[in-house]
């Protein structure tokens, strides 16, 4: 049985980021850690499909060399067609394809990172070490021990929650015969799409050149669409809303991201932790996760280097999760017009301030000012309703009748 200092289950954004960053750390009394990276074989159902990650950050970042594109200006279009475009400097909105990220990380893995192709069947916690039980592609069993185990596999189901919506989408990478896009500006939300009775829908356009772009249709609702539903929505958006003609679809992507106010525990045992989507890295109100994963991994690596228990933090502040919970419930109840809410939020606030809030680094006073620009009555009613539900869910104390 092989022993490691750190064992990572899963090689998505979280697992690969930890392998990449953790390999260069120095642990007290150990030095460079021996790291195992365990992932299922290609084609396995548990292996993530190719996808695109978007995030924003100030200035240069560690993944700039493998970005597909980046933009210094963003626009939002209201249901009426009124547009709002702003520069977001010194921030950049960045697009990274999972394939490019994976190839970059794998090509630079340090010698102290040991990939292992196997499907994990169980993780056994222990006082000093945890044991990972797995099956190799030929069906033979393998057991690996580690001082710390980080399970980055996506959860099979979201946790119990007051409200859970799904961010579900399909996108087309398109190429047009003539110039059709502005490569200097990303269209973050186009709310001219037909709106569901509850939730919200929108399109967005990430231009790669004047003739190439990722065009996506997205909904925040309880139920996903079928194939014909997504294709019909994209045909309507590209043809009727954007007015694109004579384009070729060169590739596509599709996904479902849970948007939930449930609690994600990041510790699963004395030696076992949950990381990434399983550890609450997804921002409930937006579905963005890449920046949260980077913060989570940075915290874990610092703890390892300082000899502390490396429990991953949930990378979103409690007050932000509470605000997200109110928004999700207001959308799900139909009390809030989602398209009007997002259009007003971006039109009446500095776009950089909104991005800072969505990334969890805004000041509380600025958050209050932004809140005043949103529909006060439906949000306030929903906040009171949420508070009452929270009181009902609390266990009764000893001696209560």
Structure, explained:
- The protein is of the alpha/beta class and 401 residues long.
- The protein folds into three domains: 2-50 and 97-158 and 261-305, FAD/NAD(P)-binding domain (3-Layer(bba) Sandwich); 164-259, Alpha-Beta Plaits, CATH 3.30.70; 318-393.
- It has helices spanning 13-22, 98-107, 227-241, 290-305, 318-333, 338-347, 351-358, 364-371, 376-393, and strands spanning 2-9, 35-39, 52-58, 69-71, 73-77, 83-87, 91-97, 113-117, 119-124, 130-135, 141-151, 164-176, 185-190, 200-207, 212-221, 247-260, 272-274.
- Strands 1, 2, 8, 9, 10, 11 and 17 form a seven-stranded mixed beta sheet that branches. It has a seven-stranded mixed beta sheet with strand order 6-5-13-14-15-12-16, sandwiched between helices.
- Its EC number is 5.5.1.19.
- This is Lycopene beta-cyclase.
């Amino acid at each position: 049985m092989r022993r490691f200092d750190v064992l990572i289950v899963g090689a998505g954004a979280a697992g690969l980021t930890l392998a990449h960053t953790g390999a260069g750390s120095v642990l007290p009394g150990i030095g460079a850690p021996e790291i195992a990276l365990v992932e299922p074989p290609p084609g396995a159902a548990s292996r993530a499909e190719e996808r695109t990650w978007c995030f924003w950050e100030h200035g240069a970042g560690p993944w700039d060399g493998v970005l597909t594109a980046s933009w210094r200006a963003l626009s939002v279009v209201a249901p009426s067609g009124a547009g709002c475009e702003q520069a977001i400097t010194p921030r950049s909105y960045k697009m990274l394809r999972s394939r490019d990220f994976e190839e970059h990380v794998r090509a630079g893995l340090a010698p102290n990172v040991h990939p292992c192709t196997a499907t994990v069947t169980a993780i056994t916690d222990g006082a000093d070490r945890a044991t990972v039980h797995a099956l190799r592609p030929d069906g033979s069993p393998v057991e690996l021990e580690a001082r710390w185990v980080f399970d980055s596999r996506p959860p099979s189901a979201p946790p119990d929650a007051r409200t859970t919506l799904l961010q579900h989408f399909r996108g087309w990478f398109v190429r047009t015969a003539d110039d059709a896009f502005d490569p200097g500006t990303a269209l973050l939300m186009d709310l001219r799409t037909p709106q569901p009775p509850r939730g919200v829908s929108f399109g967005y356009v990430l231009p790669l050149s004047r003739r190439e772009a990722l065009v996506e249709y997205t909904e925040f609702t309880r139920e996903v669409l079928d194939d014909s539903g997504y294709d019909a929505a994209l045909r309507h958006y590209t043809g009727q809303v954007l007015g694109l003609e004579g384009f070729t679809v060169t590739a596509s992507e599709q996904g479902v991201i849970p948007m939930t106010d449930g609690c994600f525990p990041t510790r699963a045992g004395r030696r076992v932790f949950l990381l990434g989507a399983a550890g609450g890295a997804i921002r409930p109100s937006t579905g963005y996760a890449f920046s949260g994963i980077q913060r989570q991994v940075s915290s874990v690596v610092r703890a390892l280097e300082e000899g502390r228990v490396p429990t991953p933090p949930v990378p979103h502040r409690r007050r932000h999760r509470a605000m997200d919970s109110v928004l999700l419930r207001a959308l799900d109840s139909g009390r809030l017009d989602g398209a009007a809410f997002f259009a007003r939020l971006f039109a009446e606030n500095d776009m950089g301030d909104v991005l800072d809030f969505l990334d969890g680094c805004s000041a509380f006073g600025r958050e209050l000012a932004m809140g005043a620009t949103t529909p006060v009555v439906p949000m306030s009613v929903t906040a009171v309703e949420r508070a009452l539900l929270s009181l009902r869910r609390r266990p009764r104390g000893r001696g209560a009748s």
